[in-house]
Amino acid sequence: MKATKIYLLLLTAISLSFAAKAQTADDIIGKYVDAIGGKDKLAQIKSVYTDATISVMGQDGAATTTLLVGKGYRSESEINGQKIIQVYTDKGGWSVNPFAGGTDPEPMPDDQYQSGKDAIWLGRSLLDYAARGYKAELLPKDGNNYPVKITAGTQVTTYFIDANTYLLNKMTSTASMQGQEVNVTTTLSDYKKTDFGNLEPYKINIDFGQFQLDFVVKSITVNKDIDPKIFDMPAK
Q1: Any idea what DSSP says for residue 46?
Q2: CB count, 10 Å around CB of 200?
Q3: How far apart, in Å, are the Cα atoms of 168 and each of 72, 145, 160, 219?
Q4: Which of 20, 51, 63, 226 is most solvent-facing, going by the fewest CB within 10 Å?
């Protein structure tokens, strides 16, 4: 009887081991997609407009983001009367950053554009990665997270997906800031259902090492009419 129990325990352990090995990046991504609304619902999303508050280094302000899926992404933040604008499109990017000494719109350097160009897609590089020629790799489990590494050319982003809820709770990547490469950690929490029915994080912390940005979302509007001209760089 004792030998039989040991044999059964061994079979169970082997079975669990094979099950763990069989899990793939696509499995985890698929469960994430289901958790935030499902493939069919996400395919119906054409635009996302977010209104939020922003806090940075003890200063508070207002922030908005506008996503026209596959076409353009625009973020605007205003702190102490200074407005920062970043725009990515499927063709290039531009920005206005008075804190870096620029009050006029300027074309975005290529390294900065490459590190952020996937902002124009829902889920950035995680969703539909294969269709864009990217590679996905499921890394060893990190605590209670499944890390999925997406390689898009020279840009590598690791998405940490909760093993219980299958919601995305962290991203790590590198970005170019004023000619320097920095490590960026984005933490997402307080998921809520939008009026459209998909789940979105309502608290976002972006850690650049030297400083952090905290966003608290006030409202999210899905499929709002967006004028594509807002992504065009104004003439100086």
Answers
A1: -
A2: 19
A3: 23, 9, 6, 19
A4: 20
**Which tokens is 5 given?**
């129990």
Q: What is the CATH number of the domain that holds 213?
A: 2.50.20.10
User: Structural domain of residue 211, as residue ranges?
Assistant: 25-231
Q: How do residues 44-96 score in pLDDT, each as one tens digit? A: 999 999 999 999 988 999 999 999 999 999 999 998 889 999 999 999 999 99
User: For residue 181, with 0-12 CB atoms within 10 Å meaning exposed, 13-18 middle and 19 or more buried, which class applies?
Assistant: exposed
Alpha-carbon distances, residue 152 vs 63, 72, 128, 163, 208 (angstroms): 28, 18, 12, 24, 21
Dihedral sign (CA 55, 57, 59, 65): negative
DSSP character for 97? -
Q: Report yes or no on 79 lying in a domain.
A: yes
Burial tier of 115 (Cβ tally within 10 Å: 0-12, 13-18, 19+): buried
pTM value is: 0.87
Query: How many domains are there within the chain?
Result: 1
Pairing, β 82-89 against β 180-193: unpaired
Tokens of 31: 């469960």
In a domain? residue 16: no
- Cβ atoms of residues 200 and 190 within 8 Å: no
Residue 226 lies in a domain: yes
Q: What's the pLDDT tens digit per position in 197-227? A: 999 999 999 999 888 999 999 999 999 999 9
Overall residue count recorded for the chain in this entry: 236
Rounded CA separation 229/49 (Å) = 15
